[in-house]
Amino acid sequence: MNNNTLSGKIFDAANYLFLGLMALVTIFPFLYIIAGSFATDSELTARPFFIIPKTFSLNAYRYIFSTDTLFHSVFVSVIITGLGTAIDLAFTFTMAYALSRKQLAGRNAVLNLVIFSMLFSGGLIPTYLVVKSLGLLDSYWAVVLPGAISGFNLILVKTFFQEIPFELQESAKIDGCTDIGVLWRIVLPLSKPVIATFALFYAVGHWNDFFGPLIYLNDSSMWPLQVVLRQIILLSQGTIGDPNNMDPNFVQPPDQAIKMAIIIVGTVPILLVYPFLQKHFAKGMMIGALKG
Amino acid sequence: MEKAIDTVPQLRKISFADRLKRDKWLYALLLPGLIYFIVFKYLPMWGVLIAFKNYQPFLGFFKSEWVGLDNFKTFLQNPDFFRLLRNTTILAVYDLVFYFPAPIVLALLLNEIRISAYKRVVQTLIYVPHFISMVIVASITYMLLTTENGLVNVLLNKWIGHNIDFLSSEAWFRPMIILQSMWKEIGWGTIIFLAALAGVEHEQYEAATVDGAGRLRQLWHITLPAIRSTIIVLLILRMGNFLDRGFEQILLMMNALNRSVADVFDTYVYTIGITQGAFSYSTAVGLFKSLVGIVLIFTSNYLAKRAGHSGLF
């Protein structure tokens, strides 16, 4: 579009400006919270609008890490994310591979079963009762298993597998590979970018999962980060720091700075993986957008 | 010997038992996933029957007595029903009017950017909130909007001289929810439209320019038709989820002061079912909602086909 008319130029300028503002508005809340987490009491009450604090204080961070509540919940989240992602990938990829092979008798019936489950679900209470009757309440399996396969992801992976030339798989079979061997030695090595994409999607899902732990884990010592964050920041229930662990001269940081520091701790892990995510998700979304 | 027969294809139709045997490893791969779908998707579907029972945990599923449509009648006669229907529908309509078109407009604007580095920076930044958990998003909202030195209220105090208590206001609840989800998701929502736009051949624009079409005409005759089918598919999918919007989000933003406008079917099912243990009644509420969703998805699909589009199925 080579539009060098005046109105075209005005539109372009406005558009660049608007999108730039849009990006700033998106990122501003994070900057504000980061700045606030380093603030001191006087700075938050006397001069509350700032983006760079004049006096820089790590007290809020010292305070939230003075007990092991936060460490513990981060540890729990890491376990749930690791275990959950491994299970999701194993379940999704094995099933998708079987369904990608046209020779499989009953393939269409299973596919219809999957598609129907995407349109209609039993809902919250029946699912809860199934989990309960399996004896999974108050165990991490209850958080990990009920969402192990996303029907949508399954179909995307299946479609991707169908694109891999079948001749390649057939020759491996002639060389004596079983179907499992073909998946392991031929198909999966060719699927690394797809595995990475879905691993990251599933991992972000588990890391951010709040509702599963909320309904399935009653024991607060089992809570992952998200539930603890809600408890402390939004409900102001439960304490995080212990002033007795600090030296006598320690000035208790303002409540707001403490909450901001907790938000930052909850956000940093995702922001660390974001650069890796970004490389892959465009590719992952394309599989969905163009073929699915 | 078996191998030799296999290499002569389609000489005779192999029996089901033989196919089972031949593909035994494929079935082994299929099995974990199949069990997953049966246990965690289809058992709950069957469990929906407790909506027609008076489920007592100590009696269990089979021994609890049938009560027919009683739970549905109770719900439809409950004053809660209209409150929930109104809250859910208004939020869904707001969604459709403000939240749904936003990524489309944003994608069209991004598509006009010619400096690719600038485009990449903007995209990188607007995708970020999608990856942040709803709990964090709610927490950030809380920190910005609270009347105790929240940034927005500090500014309001300076400009208009008083606070607005967004967090516990009935009037501000819906705009707050919609803006929150827009902030979180519109950047991410552009991806699918940008992919569709990337497929448009550049020659079409050049030809249009030669024919004297201005930018608006190109938008109308080339760009929009290119993403029309994507828009329609997403719209149909959206209709299916019309009533189950933003469960976590609403649960997190709801409090005693805004509950009357915040409570929706999903939060109600959670409160009545999980926290108060009225399993049969809340399952009936959930089932009612699912059925409306199915009707909406089939209706909108039918309408899309009637209007000459390809539809979802």
Descriptive report:
The complex is a heterodimer of chains A (292) and B (313). With 292 residues, chain A is mainly alpha-helical. Chain A is 71% helix and 0% strand. Chain A is built from 14 helices and no strands. The longest helix of chain A is centred in the last third of the chain and has 37 residues, at 255-291. Residues 288-292 of chain A have low confidence and may be disordered. Chain B has 313 residues and is mainly α. Chain B has helices at 2-6, 16-22, 24-47, 60-63, 70-77, 79-99, 101-111, 116-127, 134-145, 151-159, 170-198, 202-210, 215-240, 247-253, 259-262, 265-275, 279-306, and strands at 53-54, 65-66. Chain B has a two-stranded antiparallel sheet with strand order 1-2. Residues 1-5 of chain B have low confidence and may be disordered. The interface between A and B is large, with 99 and 90 residues.
Brief overview:
Chain A is mostly helical and 292 residues long. Chain A contains 14 helices and no strands. In chain A, helix 1 packs across helix 14 and helix 4 crosses helix 8.
SSE series of chain A: HHHHHHHHHHHHHH
The helix/strand class of chain B is mainly alpha
- Largest beta-sheet details of chain B: 2 strands, antiparallel
Strands of chain A, total number: 0
Estimate percent helicity of chain A. over 70%
> What is the subunit organization of this protein?
heterodimer
Structural class of chain A: mainly alpha
Total of DSSP H or I helical runs spanning 4+ residues of chain B: 17
Largest interface, Cβ cutoff 8 Å: A-B, 99 and 90 residues
Number of helices of chain A: 14
Strand content of chain A: under 5%
Radius of gyration over C-alpha positions of chain A, nearest whole angstrom: 25 Å
On the 0 to 100 scale, the average pLDDT of chain B is 88
Unreliable sequence segments of chain B: 1-5
- What overall form of chain B do the CA principal axes indicate? globular
Which strand order do you get reading across the main beta sheet of chain B? 1-2
Report the end-to-end length of chain A measured between terminal Cα atoms. 30 Å
Described by strand count, sense and barrel closure, the largest sheet of chain A is: none
